[in-house]
Write a structure and sequence with these properties.
Layout (H helix, E strand, L loop, with lengths): L2 E4 L6 H14 L3 E4 L9 H9 L5 E3 L3 H10 L10 H13 L2 H8 L4 E6 L3 E6 L16 H7 L7 E4 L5 E6 L2 E6 L12 E6 L3 E6 L3 H9 L6 H9 L5 H12 L2
Parallel strand pairs: 1-2, 2-3, 5-6, 6-8
Antiparallel strand pairs: 1-9, 4-5, 7-8, 9-10
Helix pairs in contact: 3-4, 3-5, 7-8
Length: 250
């Protein structure tokens, strides 16, 4: 078995379309969507792209998906949630039908598959413990050891921090597949991973100007900021590491 792992799409329809074309050329057995399909600027068309793939795709839930479902259900968010995150979740929830909500709500938090050359591989969104815990390639070994204590699978694939990297801890190979829709990287584009028989990091180039045009027309709150900071230009790995490690240390 070979699996294409695509994480953190964040409703960037143009990026997803391009990645799916590249995946088609690779002909994997399965596409694994690793959570945070939403929130983002084009939720309905992004969900439609994935759902039309049928049995070729399996999805797990990310914290963003969970928050949009909560917004759809009218649940109150805690004061600790940043205003822009709350606003984005509520806007996306208003764009969705009940069937979209039920699809997102029904996603499992983790899935395990046996992949040729790698063995049993655990797919989760952030960490095996929860869907919003932060760790990076720069996180202290002691903290990462604690996060992955008790994991039985030899390989874990995650996302959430939007950066491709690989590291090992206590014999476990940890792979971050990167982000399709909102990457932290040294150049724009869409980032994903192909698994089996090895791990291959992928970078897909797509039409950034077309993506920007679609996003600006979406009505998404903060659409211009999304274009400026996540499409036409993206945060570098060094910038993201500094910000994320500060958050993780809180």
């Amino acid at each position: 078995m070979r699996i294409a792992a695509i994480y953190d799409i964040h409703c960037n329809e143009s990026a997803l379309e391009a990645v799916l074309r590249d995946i088609q050329a690779e002909q994997p057995d399965l596409i694994l969507v690793g959570g945070d399909i939403v929130p983002g600027p084009l939720p309905r068309t992004t969900l439609a792209l994935l759902q039309q793939l049928g049995a070729k795709v399996r999805c797990i839930r990310g914290n963003g998906d969970r928050e949009v479902v909560a917004a759809f259900d009218g649940q109150l968010f805690g004061e600790s949630m940043p205003h822009e995150v709350r606003e984005a979740a509520q806007w996306v929830a208003q764009q969705l039908e009940r069937s979209h909500r039920d699809f997102l709500a029904g996603l499992p938090e983790q899935l395990t598959f046996t992949i040729d050359g790698l063995g049993d591989v655990l797919f989760c969104h952030a960490t095996p413990r929860n869907d919003e815990e932060i760790f990076t390639q720069a996180s202290p070994e002691e903290r990462v050891n604690t996060i992955f204590a008790g994991v039985q699978q030899p390989v874990v694939v995650c996302g959430h921090t939007h950066m491709q990297f690989e590291r090992a801890v206590n014999g476990i190979r940890i792979v971050n597949a990167g982000s399709v829709g909102m990457p932290y990287a040294d150049q724009p584009g869409a980032y994903w991973a192909l698994l089996g028989p090895e791990v291959t990091f992928k970078h897909t180039v797509y039409d950034l100007d077309d993506a920007a045009k679609r996003i600006r027309a979406s009505g998404y709150p903060g659409a211009q900021e999304f274009v400026d900071e996540n499409v036409l230009k993206v945060p570098t790995v060094a910038e993201a590491l500094q910000a994320l490690e500060r958050l993780a240390a809180r």
